[in-house]
Task: inverse folding
């Protein structure tokens, strides 16, 4: 019988809780209060402007990493039984659903105009790419090959960014406007890049948008592979204490390597540099170590329902704001609030109420064991 990794449910739920509840409410609270010492804390709940890494920057890498963890648990039996047809169908189906959901969330798929449709612009699509490659490697290659692939992809991304120069882009330039990953996205995605539009027959890209996806797919895959390696450790029959040592040791080593490498190859989450991949992967290992130690090793269970509600229905939680317009309904019902407390405080109250309602919708699904799977 396949053992469920409870620490993964809690870690995934915590990641979603901070993304969907804590971050939006705290950011709005800080802006509403407009207090000097609170304003100085805002960076904790926002992405780094370019180089560097904030606590908020771990959210997306952690999602990709946790997707990799699930691979050994989901596909080991199929690999052992050489049931490749079922495994491949599962991979194709999951990638397709994630890709379409990503286009719904951020790719303009439901917009009235086809001119606002973007192909590759969302976390779910990065997860899909990382999952597809990692799962195929898990099915058809050995662990040593998988490690070699991860190293080659890390070094390949770094080498491309350092030594390839095209049309004034790249060649070691890590600025937002002139790095190689920016050029690749513009050339490959063109009009279908997030925010791009055609004006008088010319593609115009959105100003100040520098997230990259195409070349960065190399390092998305590495993050997925790192999660898969963690999943192999978690599923193995080695002693629990040894697993914890592997999680902690791997985490510390990767954080250190990422920081050292960042001296020459900066940590930039927006373009998913190799140093950022190592650094964030190390942080993910350490977070997994903490959850695994407390929950799966020590058996701590109290007070975790909040995170399980989010974590065991992660796709439903992530997609809910797109399909269930809770905030819009509450804004209409509470339209009198701005006249009582002003726009800023009314907006904060509606944000808190939105989080509460969304949670109880997920809690209803959790209690009735309604889980959306892909």
Result:
């Amino acid at each position: 019988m396949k053992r469920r990794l409870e620490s993964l449910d809690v870690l995934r739920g915590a990641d979603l809780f901070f993304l969907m509840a804590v971050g939006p409410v705290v950011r709005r609270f800080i802006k509403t209060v407009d207090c000097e010492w609170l304003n100085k804390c805002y960076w904790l709940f926002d992405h780094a402007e370019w180089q560097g890494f904030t606590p908020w920057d771990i959210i997306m890498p952690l999602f990709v990493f946790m997707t990799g963890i699930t691979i050994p648990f989901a596909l080991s039996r199929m690999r052992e039984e050489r049931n490749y047809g079922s495994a491949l169908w599962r991979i194709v189906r999951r990638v397709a659903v994630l890709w379409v959901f990503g286009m719904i969330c951020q790719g303009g798929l439901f917009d009235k105009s086809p001119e606002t449709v973007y192909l590759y612009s969302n976390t779910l699509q990065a997860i899909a790419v990382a999952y597809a490659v990692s799962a195929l490697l898990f099915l058809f290659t050995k662990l040593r090959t998988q490690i070699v692939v991860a190293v080659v992809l890390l070094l390949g991304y770094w080498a491309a960014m350092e030594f390839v120069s095209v049309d004034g882009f790249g060649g070691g330039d890590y600025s937002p406007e002139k790095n190689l990953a920016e050029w690749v996205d513009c050339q490959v995605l063109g009009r279908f890049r997030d925010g791009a539009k055609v004006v008088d027959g010319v593609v115009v890209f959105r100003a100040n948008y520098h997230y990259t996806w195409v070349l960065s797919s190399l390092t998305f895959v590495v993050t997925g592979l790192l999660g898969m390696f963690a999943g192999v450790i978690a599923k193995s029959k080695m002693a629990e204490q040894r697993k914890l040592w592997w999680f902690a040791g791997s985490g510390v080593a990767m954080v250190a390597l990422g920081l050292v490498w960042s001296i020459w190859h900066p940590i930039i989450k927006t373009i998913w540099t190799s140093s950022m991949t190592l650094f964030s992967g190390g942080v993910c290992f350490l977070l997994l170590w903490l959850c695994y130690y407390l929950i799966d090793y020590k058996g701590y269970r109290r007070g975790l329902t909040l995170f399980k509600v989010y974590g065991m229905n992660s796709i439903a939680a992530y997609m809910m704001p797109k399909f269930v317009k809770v905030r819009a309904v509450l804004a209409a019902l509470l339209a009198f609030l701005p006249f009582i407390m002003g726009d800023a405080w009314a907006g904060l109250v509606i944000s808190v109420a939105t989080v509460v309602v969304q949670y109880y919708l997920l809690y209803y699904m959790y209690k009735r064991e309604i889980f959306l799977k892909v």
